[in-house]
Automatic annotation (TrEMBL):
It holds the Pfam family DAO. Residues 3-371 form the FAD dependent oxidoreductase domain. It comes from Antrihabitans stalactiti. GO terms for cellular component: cytoplasm. Signal peptide: none annotated. This is TIGR03364 family FAD-dependent oxidoreductase.
């Protein structure tokens, strides 16, 4: 079959990868010279810990696929795991409850005392009472993964990537659809997949109308090299408030008895931190849901996150070399892994994985291919 995939982010590229694996021909269009949305403005985490029950199987399958992709292309896949560091008794109680559940083994959860934390991740020499270790978590290099995957796809001889190319129209035909770009070229396809990321107006609205999706803005930063390995990703206890897989009586008690820091509460924050292959740390993040989003970034969340990471590391952070904001799209129905809308027999819109796009991308590509019988 001939597929035209509109969108060069993780969803579009994951769908292209799956289509090529199944023997089809793919043309992929990306309006920027390189993806510039949430695909590259993230942690690069393949995040198993904290996922809800309904998404855990999909997440584990996606992690398996990421590991396979890592054997085939230079995406910087690292099965580093993570440690959620606990600073209060209420946070420890949540971790103990989670670690005692029947699915703790599936998720790779183990409770660690401070000495065990430092044995696994020697860079963690700061203040914490315990750690919740998740061996299933992993990381990829978000800024290099997509070019590396495209390089792998090029070797098939059945893949063409058009950068700096905006799709302007998609028209149904007798045997499929025609895509017209902003240079007047047309591309004939048996199947068209539109993966618009956070760009929900324009062609997306024209094809699919208003989708049950909201947009979410976040702020993140990156430091200069740490100077030593951070052998796992790290999180703080605020992630218990954010991720549904932790929810239970202990989280209810945490919410009731331990108010979140005012800055963290205002910006709906949790700490996630992962080391890049060059040694710097990617640190975040915030969540803003009410549009129109501001065009600038607030300094208070950065100062707060810096303080938390320094307390956990027990040392000063290297200088911050980059700060950025990003926007991703998220299904209003959070039990949907992604929203798919079939426009006609040959045209589909796939959008809204939320902050799970990097984690679930390969699985979602596989799932869509099964759904539409590729």
């Amino acid at each position: 079959m001939r597929l035209v995939i509109i969108g060069g982010g993780i969803l579009g590229t994951a769908h292209a990868l799956e289509a090529i694996r199944r023997g089809h021909d793919v043309v992929q269009l990306e309006r920027e010279k390189e993806a510039r949305g949430a695909t590259v403005r993230n942690f690069g985490l393949v995040w198993v810990s904290g996922r809800a029950d309904y998404e855990i199987d999909a997440t584990l399958r996606s992690r398996e696929l990421w590991e396979q992709i890592g054997r085939e292309s230079e995406i910087g896949f690292r099965p580093t795991g993570s440690i959620t560091l606990l600073r209060t008794d209420a946070e420890v109680a949540v971790a103990e409850e989670v670690a005692a559940r029947s699915d703790a083994g599936v998720r790779g959860f183990t409770m660690l005392d401070p000495a065990e934390v430092t044995a696994i991740n020697p860079a963690l020499r700061g203040k914490f009472l315990a750690g919740l270790h998740c061996t299933r978590d992993a990381a990829v290099e978000s800024r290099v993964a997509l070019p590396a995957i495209r390089k792998y796809l090029d070797r098939s001889g059945r893949y063409t990537f058009h950068a700096g190319t905006e799709a302007r129209a998609v028209t149904s035909t007798t045997n499929g659809a025609t895509v017209r770009d902003d240079q007047g070229r047309t591309f004939e396809a048996d199947i068209v997949l539109l993966c618009p990321g956070a760009q929900l107006s324009g062609l997306t609205r024209e094809l699919a109308g208003e989708l049950p999706i909201r947009r979410v803005r976040l702020q993140m930063m990156q430091t200069a090299p740490l100077g030593e390995p951070l052998t796992t990703a790290i999180a703080d206890g605020d992630s218990f408030r954010y991720y549904p897989g932790y929810h239970g009586s202990a989280v209810d008690t945490l919410q009731a008895t331990q108010p979140q820091d005012a800055i963290a509460d205002e910006h709906r924050m949790q700490l996630l931190c992962v080391q890049r292959v060059h040694g710097g740390l990617t640190i975040g993040d915030t969540h803003e849901y009410d549009e129109p989003f501001t065009f600038d970034v607030d300094e208070a969340p950065y100062a707060y996150l810096t303080g938390v990471v320094e307390e956990l590391l027990g040392r000063k952070l290297p200088p911050v070399v980059r700060r950025w904001a990003g926007v991703y799209s998220q299904c209003l129905d959070r039990t949907e892994l992604v929203h798919r809308k079939q426009v006609d027999d040959s045209i589909w819109v796939v959008a809204g994985p939320g902050g799970r796009g990097m984690t679930l991308g390969p699985f979602l590509g596989e799932q869509t291919a099964d759904l539409i019988n590729l």
